[in-house]
Amino acid sequence: MLRYILRRLLISIPLLLGMSLVAFLFISCAPGDYFDALRLNPEISEATIRQYEAQYLLDKPVLVQYAAWLGRLLQGDLGYSFAMRAPVAHVIGSRVGNTLLLTLVAMVVAWGVAIPLGMWAAVRHRTWVDRFLGLQMVIGMSVPSFFLALLLLYIASRTGILPVGGIRSAGAQSLSPVGQFLDVAAHLVIPALVISAASMAGLARVIRGNLLEVLQSPFVLAARARGIPEKSVLWRHALRNAINPMITIFGYELSSLLSGAALTEIICNWPGLGSLMLTAVRQQDLFLVMGDMLIGGVLLLVGNLLADLALAWSDPRIRYERS
């Protein structure tokens, strides 16, 4: 297993290089750059703009710029964000915690609700419970996330039950630690529900289908024939065999931390990486876009690796060894 992990880590290096090169080329092919808007500002001289371009080799060919960026990256320097006027590492570091908090809470809610609902629908197959839950799953997968976010924000604005947008209320710094925690939790409800809604419906359908197939297997019939309690058959035997595709999905969900919450963060004014990426792309902030892209690529590779390791831990039949 250790050899497999090392091999996957070595393979991830050229993958990240290829992803970063393609992204850098696409960004560079876009017409204009960040300094075009600065040239329209009479308070900024042309000499200052040329100084920035020369410092980061932005007046050189694209491949030279990429090589320079890659060299700084190997030294731990993600570059400088011209739009935010701060190092990219500092800008991303100030936002990444908010995105991780939002998406991890949404994943816990989605998985914590989807697995019991999917199991309940499978156990009550072809009953009114199964049909009702199936209808809710279809609705959850069909409703666009932006529409659900706007709807919940409208309800919150009319009722005042939950705060509308942001991550903290005005004057939250004067609250006690418990009060600050509750304030952030209240702001977290709407975006977390929006992100988890579609994921919850899809996961519930997957676990229902897998569990229905497993419950018809001979080993489940044998376990019931031996007098094992139905709850133990369901949770210890059937679910363990039906959970493998869910673990693979978990790896891809972990990699979508950046992209999955982007639209919700923008609508709910949540200060995370999604809204930061939109700002960076709109202002053509080259190094900030590359930093966000790099995080997304790392999460994709790490998520797939963790999913493979979790599969091997969950199912003893799976081994990553060379024949």
Topology at a glance:
Elements: H1 2-29, H2 34-39, H3 46-55, H4 62-74, E1 80-81, E2 86-87, H5 88-123, H6 128-142, H7 145-159, H8 177-215, H9 218-225, H10 230-242, H11 244-255, H12 257-260, H13 262-267, H14 273-282, H15 286-314
Helix pairs in contact: 1-15, 5-6, 5-8, 5-15, 6-8, 7-8, 8-10, 11-15, 14-15
CA(first)-CA(last) distance: 14 Å
Order of helices and strands: HHHHEEHHHHHHHHHHH
Query: What structural category characterises the helix and strand content?
Result: mainly alpha
Main β sheet profile:
2 strands, antiparallel
What's the number of structural domains? Answer: 2
Q: Using DSSP, what is the number of strands?
A: 2
Using the coordinates above, name the CATH class of the largest domain: Mainly Alpha
Count of individual helical segments: 15
Tell me the CATH topology of the largest domain. Answer: MetI-like fold
List the strand order in the largest sheet: 1-2
* Poorly predicted ranges: none
Q: For this structure, what is the CATH homologous superfamily of the largest domain?
A: MetI-like
Strand content: under 5%
Quickly give the CATH architecture of the largest domain: Orthogonal Bundle
> Rounded to an integer, what's the Rg over CA atoms?
24 Å
Label the overall shape.
globular
